[in-house]
Amino acid sequence: MIQTIRLILTRVATMRAKSSEGKVTNTTPMSLLEVKLSLPTKIIFGDAAIAQKYDAAELAQLSKIRLGEGTLGTLYKVVLNCGSIITMRKIRDGLVSTADLEFWIKFFGGLSDEWLLPMQFSLWYGGEAFVIHEYLCLGSLEELLHGENKFL
Q: Which terminus in the chain has less CB density within 10 A, N or C?
């Protein structure tokens, strides 16, 4: 996969204030360094209109709260800039081949049942696969069934 990286740099100038003794007392930046990355995005499953509501670069850069680790990868709670909350699973690298991963995501994304949480969409961003679900505020199913205290 070819990754396109576009960097936009602005010049950083500094203004130095000198004390009466000729020593530099502080350095103040006149402009900020700006770097923007543009990585390829590909929708694996889901409606493109829903996926367009989310910016893949924003999803990748927002702070995430780790909810758990599973066989497929790590599950995160993400609070978007607009205030809504989603659940994002970052699929573990090397789990299966790219073609197999896309097949299984499309298969499980197409399942519909009242007991299953529907997948909103799934995408590739910068060589990593992500699955996006709505966030359920009641906690994990394991905690609801077995309680928070586990006996070893």
A: C
Examine residue 22 and state whether it is found in any structural domain, yes or no: no
- pLDDT tens profile 35-93: 556 677 888 998 888 888 888 888 888 889 998 888 889 999 999 888 889 999 999 98
The answer as to whether 4 is a domain residue is: no
- Alpha-carbon gap, residue 54 to 87, rounded angstroms: 13
Per-residue b/e over 44-79, b at no fewer than 16 CB within 10 Å?
A: bbbeeeebeebebeebbeeebeebeeeebbebbebe
Q: What is the tally of structural domains in the chain? A: 1
Does 30 fall in a domain?
A: no
Return d(Cα 73, Cα 134) in angstroms, integer. Answer: 17
What is the domain extent for residue 64?
41-146
